[in-house]
Every structure is written in C-alpha cells, then in structure tokens.
Specification:
The strands form three sheets. Strands 1, 2, 3, 4, 5, 6 and 7 form a seven-stranded mixed sheet that branches. This protein has nine helices and 18 strands. A hairpin with a 2-residue loop joins strand 10 and strand 11. It is of the alpha+beta class.
Length: 457
C-alpha cells in the first residue's frame, strides 16, 4: 500500500476566505514588483489546491494520497513583448527572481502585435459566486470505507464478476486569484468529489471490463457507493459475449457520456488557436449552418452549482450568457483576447475555455431514441484519437450494442466507426433528454442518420 499522507480535505474550519485574502495580497505585491521592473502591463495567477485520493482493489487498500499544491504565475508585457515565469516558493527573494525572470524573457522576445492584456473596459465588475464551494471533512479512513463499499457492491452483484480494476474515492478543493494591471482582481473557489468503480467479468479471452463513476461539486450530489458499484456491474455484464458486425452503413446512436465528444470537436474547430492557424474544418463558418436547423447550443456561465460557472474568464473579461449555435447556425467563435486580435475580432470571454454549454434536446430519453432508431449501432465507448482537425475526417474504435427493431440485440466490440465531422454534425437526427450531468457540456444521447461501421467480417 502506498500511503503518502492521510490528512482530510478540510479540517472542519473553512479558511478559504483567509487563503484568498493572502493570495490577493500576493498578487498585488507581484504586480507592483513587475511595475517597478519596468513592465507596461502585467498579470498574475495564484492557485492553491488540496486533495485526497484513495484507491482500493479486490478488497484491499492500494494507495492513499493527500496533495497540497501551489502555483504562482507571472506574465509581463513590455509593449508587445511578453514573458512568463512560475514558482511555488513564497520567499520574497524567490518572488523577486520570478518577476525578474519574466521581465528578462520579455526583453528578449520579438514584438507580437496581438500580445497584451484584454481591453480594460471588458473586465468583470459583478464578481459573484455560483454555489461551487462545498468543503467536507472527508478523511482517509472514511474514503477507504466508501471505496471498499463501492467495489464490494459491484463484485457481489454477480458470480461472473471475479476480478476488479478497483474503486476510487477522491475529494479536493481549489482557491485561486487572477489579477492584472488594469486594476482587476478576481477570486475563485471550488470543491470537487468523485467515486468510481471498474469491474472485470468473465475469464481468459472472454473477459470484459466496464466502469461507472459519479462526480460533483458537493458530496451530497454524488450517487451512492452501492448504486455506482451496481451500475458498473450492470454495464460489464451487459458486455459479455460480444460479437462483431459486418462492414456497412447504418444509423449510429452515441450514448450521452460519449456524445459530448462530438460537441467537443465542434468547440475545438471554432476555437481561436485552431482558426488563426488555419487548422480547422470549420474555417470562416460564422453565419453558416453547422448543425441541423432545430439545433441550439447556449453557453451559460452563471449556472448555480454549474461545473464551469464563473463571472470572469482567465483574462478577467466578464463572461456572458450567449448562443454558440442558434437554429443550426454558428453565431460566433470561441476566443480569448490573443486569438481575437489575430483574427481581427473581439474576445468572446472564453480565455480558459467554455463555461457550461446547454445543448437543446428534440427527443425523449435513451430508450425512446433506441426505439426510434429501429436498427443500428448504440455506441457506449470510443477508443483511439482518429480525428483530423483540419479535414474533419473521423475514424475511431468503438464498442456498444447492436439494435434490431428498436431493441438491444447483443453487445459488439472490435469495430470502427467512420465519417466526416462536418457531415456528421449536419446529419444529427435527434438529441435526447438523458443529460449526463458529469460534464460542463450538458447534453443527452445523439442519433446520427448514417455512418460507416467497419467490423471484423
């Protein structure tokens, strides 16, 4: 057993505000040091993380790890020349050296016309919290008990489950401050918890593996350990005795937890770095149809207890609720200030990524989609990275279930699904209401009208 430490995630005393105060003072000090060394602009990020992670397997504890991390990043600008340096050392001499190193780098770089802070007038002023802070006194003993109970619930579900890849329980909290020389200072704090279980059924070449997990910002929002273990058992047993499929074309239904990868590819394709590098299959696509006419995707950064809710992005720019896709038409790109300048546009307050996406449904739950598909492939797992971001060509290994006459017929694996992302996105026939709440991309299962499925015969 690997035991690094056994301290709880929190001690019962919530010191987050005091820690944020210290980080705020540190950020102001570093900005002053940068100005004193001649920087025309500067920005500072200060983050502290605490975490506990426990892993068990076959009824025995494998590891207990407690972590405490700190990261301090300083970026300075001398005109349009940029330099960055990081440290975790709070000693005054180390902080001074970190700022000096960032300044030295900036003095030796070339001018970049797109470099610099986001515009001062775009800084957030309404610095709210969104119910993301739920500290818990989860300690190592309790975490071990939870993990053991989760694994036991799965292993005891059926005698065919003779092995396990283990169960894990984790909890953590993060506090952070971002500040820049426009006078902006934003504070953020969040907690996160997860429980997972992976089980193995069958023997020899007939073995199958599957898993289930629950994750949330608050412990009370997690599924129970028993429910997670039993769900993992149900999933692995359903995969027993899989078959392959004849190569051909058929409808493909992506279950919710894999369907969000399709929207992930869309986001990547309309993100600034891909666009200004001309490395996207959706170049010059604003104002054009990228999804069917009934489809809509809306960014909602102000969701209470949302997994990625924030009043400001990674540059301090005020986030805002807005459409990414409306009536199937792409309304905007996903930009921070640097990529926006490279493209001659304005930031969309997405430095650091997307802040909660809601993908509208037009159908019922998974069973409704299966019945509506009639005959085709239900994909529950994707493997490999066969996606060409420039052309949109898509080819990935997959596993799931063959559906006949609106009913699951048998499990399948060892197959490949292929198509082109632009055509796939435009060929979405239905999106379900079975939203997977474990992601900031909030969407249900997705039915595509037709894809190429390559099997073993």
């Amino acid at each position: 057993m690997n035991v690094i430490a056994s301290s709880p995630v929190t001690t019962g005393h919530d010191d987050s505000q005091a820690r944020l105060d210290r980080l705020s003072d540190l950020a102001r000090d570093l900005l002053a040091r940068a100005r004193a060394q001649g920087a025309t602009q500067a920005e500072v990020s200060c983050d502290e993380d605490r975490g506990l992670n426990v892993n068990v397997r076959m009824g025995a504890v494998e590891s207990v790890e407690s972590t405490r991390d700190r990261s301090i990043g300083v970026t300075v600008y001398f005109g349009q020349r940029k330099g960055s340096a990081t440290t975790a050392d709070l000693r005054p001499e180390s902080l001074e050296a970190t700022v000096a190193q960032a300044c030295a780098i900036a003095r030796h770089t070339e001018d970049d016309p797109a470099s610099g802070l986001a515009e001062a007038g775009l800084m957030a002023t309404d610095l709210r919290e969104f119910d993301s802070w739920h500290p818990s006194t989860l300690d190592a003993d309790e975490a071990v008990d939870l993990a053991l109970a989760c694994e036991a619930a799965g292993r005891e579900a059926d005698p065919r489950i003779a092995n396990s890849d283990g169960a894990s329980v984790s909890g953590g909290e993060s506090v952070g401050v971002y500040a820049n020389s426009h006078g902006f200072l934003g504070r953020d704090r969040n907690t996160h918890y997860s429980i997972s279980c992976a089980l193995i059924a069958g023997e020899g070449d007939a073995m199958q593996r599957d898993y289930w997990y629950s994750s949330a910002l608050a412990r009370e929002d997690l599924e129970s350990t028993v429910a997670i273990g039993r769900r993992a058992a149900e999933r692995v047993l359903a995969r027993m005795d899989p078959r392959s499929l004849a190569t051909g074309e058929m409808p493909v239904l992506f279950q919710a937890e894999v369907a969000r990868s399709l929207v992930g590819h869309l986001i990547n394709a309309v993100s600034g770095s891909a666009l200004y590098r001309r490395a996207s299959f959706l170049l010059d696509s604003v104002g054009t149809a990228v999804l069917p006419e009934w489809c809509a995707i809306r960014e909602q950064p102000f969701l209470m207890r949302g997994l990625r809710s924030s009043a400001f992005d990674a540059e301090g720019v005020a986030t805002r609720e807005s459409d990414l896709v409306r009536d199937g038409i792409l309304q905007r790109y996903v930009l921070g200030s640097y990529s926006a300048r490279r493209l001659g546009l304005q930031t969309t307050a997405n430095a650091g990524g997307i802040y909660n996406l809601d993908v509208a449904a037009n159908a019922g739950g998974l069973q409704d989609l299966i019945r509506g598909m009639g005959t085709g492939l239900l994909v529950t797992e994707l493997m490999g990275q066969g996606v060409n971001a420039i052309t949109g060509d898509y080819s990935r290994g997959a596993a799931g279930f063959y559906v006949e006459n609106g009913e699951i017929a048998y499990p399948v694996d060892g197959i490949t699904i292929a198509g082109n992302l632009r055509e796939m996105l435009g060929n979405i026939q239905a999106i379900g209401t079975d939203v997977d709440a474990r992601s900031h991309i909030r969407m249900g299962s997705v039915l595509l009208g037709r894809m190429t499925v390559a099997g073993g015969f």
